[in-house]
């Protein structure tokens, strides 16, 4: 018997010739990248290469200006969407520096976020009971304490708690595309393992992740399908996970 | 001016909401307690609150919140005097200013030479939501006793852009995000007065 399997690769995100600047200074100088459903892409590169700019531009941070190129999310013009619409459409950023919001409780913040996304999908808001049990379930996964509910968003959290809290929010919102911006920075090995396990558990055949990192370490835990090297605003090399090991050994100078 | 004398150990608590012209003077005798709230929500006003601690061991709390838009204008003046020792005073004054609103705070805190062991705090925080709104703050502290604990702080700022973006990145619309931040800013005063919410405080778009 001979069987033929046809694999349909569904494009989730397509970045074409993306140029972006901040304060008149060009940071991204023509980025091309295609991400299919189910894939994990690592973006590595030296400081100042434009890694964080890429995540800022994809999420619509108003500090950055796109000067050329386009980005399609499942065929739709991502750059034309407001930041909150991008989020509701499934783009999630785990911030390198999560923001503290005094006076806004985690519960209130998260309930608003979850229900805005549900409204966008045409779903009814969660009942208080459903919402709290979802919070409890996801917090357990990240080993976050219960008392977090009543605290203000990120206020007084340790560095590790802030990063866990990002992945917790990701778990609550089940994004189609998760962008993890230096999620490993400032994490000890235990926190790193918890965060990475969280990310791995959220992986489905329909969603994808961009893992931005300076070091290979995180990629021992979150194994990428592709590794891209970003240098001076462009992707200069793409390979599989062995590229990350090579970079760790020989440094970025060997490539750029 | 409406003058009220609080006798020994008496308690006076009152929240004044949207009074266009508040002018009160309270004289506190020993061990009396005053807690005053002043709310000006979308309405102009001139407030003058004068409190004199003339007996020992008094407590004074003043909480004021103005939430103004359009051309509204609020001036809040507090004059707190510690004439004798062992008293506590605590003032928290907040303004939220949108559109072309004007806010002014004059905070006069006086600790007389005889008022040793006084504890006095005055805080003024303001949130300016529009480039056409304006806040003026004039704190004035006169401290003539040496064994006291006194703090004061004043600050005026805008909404935290990074917090707004963070909330938008979680799918919260910009207008909703602004509301959450403004409410968070006002919460401290409402909590101090044990108020859940105040009518008209949320800006309809």
Overview of this structure, please?
The complex is a heterodimer of chains A (256) and B (205). Chain A is of the alpha/beta class and 256 residues long. Chain A has a single domain (11-101, 158-254), classed as Rossmann fold (3-Layer(aba) Sandwich). Chain A is 32% helix and 29% strand. Chain A is built from seven helices and twelve strands. In chain A, the strands form three sheets. In chain A, strands 6-9-10-3-11-12 form a six-stranded mixed β-sheet, sandwiched between helices. In chain A, helix 5 (159-173) packs parallel to helix 6 (189-201). The longest helix of chain A has 15 residues, at 106-120. Chain A is globular. The model of chain A has no long low-confidence stretch (mean pLDDT 92). By secondary structure, chain B is mainly β. Chain B has one domain (2-159). Chain B has two helices and twelve strands; from the N terminus they run ββββββββββββαα. Chain B has helices at residues 161-169, 174-192, and strands spanning 2-6, 11-17, 21-28, 33-41, 45-53, 59-68, 73-82, 88-97, 102-111, 119-128, 134-143, 149-157. In chain B, the strands form two sheets. A six-stranded parallel β-sheet of chain B has the order 1-3-5-7-9-11, with no helix packed on it. Chain B is elongated, with a radius of gyration of 18 Å. Chains A and B meet through helix 2, strand 7, helix 3 and strand 8 of A and helix 1 and helix 2 of B.
